[in-house]
């Protein structure tokens, strides 16, 4: 029987995998798989949104339905391996020619029957087993796809929450800056009115106030759009009371060890799902090859047939039939060969998709590591820059108050400091988001394909 195998050889290529990630953490730390998402996302507001998203997100619900479909498909394909048994009961009435009616002394023939039928296809060359294996691999792929979608959903909700907190802090800074500039404008206007100031100083102060005021609607618009996107992810409207914490309160400062690059092949749901699809395509090739061989089936019928309903199943009414059969394709106009080529082409497509998924996964991890490293460097630099800009602004104000410089110097210093403070908030949010991206790129912390809700 080993010579009848139709299973194609494994097509998994040797994918180039680097020995280590660039800029990877050298210090001891947990990997993303060891750290469950509830342990990584410790902020209560963020976790509440994530739980709501896992419960309500429509894409996740659709993915769960696809798993149920694939599970049913496995059961359907597995049923073909077992004997199929059915029962039937019927009545037939046939009118006969007059000559025959005179012989039978009746112009109709009536027959009642009750039959039990069984049919079994002997899967000698493995066609049915290969179809069942392909269905099983598709089911496993759909389960991993849902796990990947859940991981992506958690990361998107976390990123959306961080963006909202960034906009809130930038708005608070913009309102505070606007209030300070309105006070400065009021003071310079009074000076001009009493003759101790110039009109140009008032104009410059008004320009500074207008710039701060113009920043507020732009941030409000971006925040509203982000809030709408976050509501779609969560699956329901989000109240303002659910978004109150600052960026400093959300945590996400844990160190994550990427682990070995080869471990990514087993941890990333999209890689595992694509591998299952590749195996399903290989199993379909085996089924297509088995279609060239004979199909053997056994059919059996047992039951009773009688001219009278009352006599059905009586003595002498039993009947049976046993019919083994073999069917061999002789001429199919190239259909079987075309089906085999189609299966092989789909396998090649899945193989290319598998390699591309691996390459994309390694890039995601490398990008997240690079962001984590260089954003931290930028934050350090801008912190130093803000210290210098604050001192510059203080000195410029002292020089202006002493009459040693124009208000334009104060204007430039304040504008640069405001821009730097806004940039620092953005960088802090981006650094926190890079941790979320790294966690998701490494496969996240869903240990099961179908994560179940837990109360926070």
From TrEMBL:
Bilayer topology annotation: Lipid-anchor
Molecular function terms from GO: efflux transmembrane transporter activity
Source taxonomy: Bacteria, Pseudomonadati, Pseudomonadota, Alphaproteobacteria, Sphingomonadales
Protein name: RND transporter
Compartment list: Cell membrane
GO cellular component: plasma membrane
Keyword Transport: no
Keyword set includes Lipoprotein: yes
